[in-house]
Protein: M24/M37 family peptidase
Amino acid sequence: MKSDYIVTEPDTPASARLAPKLAIGAGLFALAFYLAGDRNDEPAPEALASATSAQDDIALVPRTHEARSLLDDIAPISSAQAAIAPPSAALEDTERSNAALLDLAAQPPAAPLEPQDEAQLVRLESRELVVRNGDSLSILFDRNGLKPIDWMALAKLDGDAKRLLRLRPGDKLMLGLDDEQRVAALDMRINDTKTLRIRRDEDGQYEQSLLVDDLSVREVAVEGVIENSLFLSAKSAGLSDRLTMELTDIFAWDVDFALDIRAGDRFRVIYEELYRDGKLLKEGNILAAEFTNRGQALRAVRYIDSDERAAYYAPDGKPMKKAFLRSPVDFTRISSRFSMGRKHPILNTIRAHKGVDYAAPRGTPIKAAGAGKVVFAGNKGGYGRVVILQHAGKYQTLYAHLNAFRRGIRKGVSVSQGDTIAYVGMSGLATGPHLHYEFLVGGKHVDPLRVKLPSAPPIAKAEMERFQGQTATLLAKLDDFAPTNSALVASASENVSQP
Ligand SMILES: [Zn+2]
Structure:
């Protein structure tokens, strides 16, 4: 026997809006999906139906609005029949004889079913299981009073269904239970685009399929001028906090957002929004951005290289990322700046401060400013506990007054840029917790706040043409900037990366 599941929205006449989209056959088990034309209706409870002959039919009515995202667009039997086959006279005859129909009082009302449709339904009770920390399929089923035989059968499935053996907290399983509380249907969203769908067939075997949503991408362009705070101005321009953080991360190598921002600074951002079924799913990446700091405009564009690594580059192909972090610690303020000092003309004393002091609470992690090797980790008189890193070429960085070293940090150990190496303290001669940070070029102290930091490796010459091809359009959009109303809607299957 053949089963058909059809998908639509129940609150408008199905015949008016259904259009076949795709059909997947799996042996005797066939799925037919329909996409509704109008997705801007008020969110309505949905129903799942199997529209076939006689008593094997199934209807599953999600209990909550939340359920909609999982059992997305599942239709009542009436729509199914309108789309697939008109009810036959024989079906009408079974009208009131079906005692197996379960009425789920707790459900939001589904679209009214026509009597001849109800007759052939075996309704499933829908139940949503939310995975908690430490849950396995068996723990989850046990807690919900479900039968071990079902999770054992589900756990034996291979392919995409193996995901059921790697449940994560927050995963949602939408189940359809028959009147013996056995699992007849299961939907679980696997990621932004994929839903695992499992149905029990006539022989009691579980069959799985994978529903794949098309995401569409919309480019959004936003610009703003900073008045008081970057975050406030960005917000009023329509930029989320997350994207604002990303924007500061992109330019943080050249702009010190704690110290350098001035009223009148400007930004332009082009980013992606990802849509599923016409609804905003999430924000994507920043594609290109311009930040004008004190009259100087900096630009960055996202480029995915031939090894599929994405990074931000200046229009000339130099990476935005530098070989060194400007500040190796999240500080509350700079308590002392760099000064080489000079002989006081009268007192004849020298007061030099060959580094920068970053005040920060005791225990604040200190990051390696660049990739390198630990050449010293120990005590140095008034500097207290000190780490010195040797970097490629002629660069050294020094971190003093540490509260403690990070475990494993000792002479000879290699570190990556951004690795925590130690914690802020006040060892040695210090009046309060702070990081004393020195930057040496060829053994000579320079001002860490002013030194021109070397770039990370640039785009290879061989790849320059590819870079220019990929980024030219985005850079042109920064030139002829048109805030969001010029946004493009593009089909995205080829340029949306799966999470
Ligand atoms: Zn100092």
Q: What stands out?
A: The chain has three domains: 3-212, 216-320+457-491, 333-446. The mean pLDDT is 77. The first strand starts at residue 3 and ends at 6.
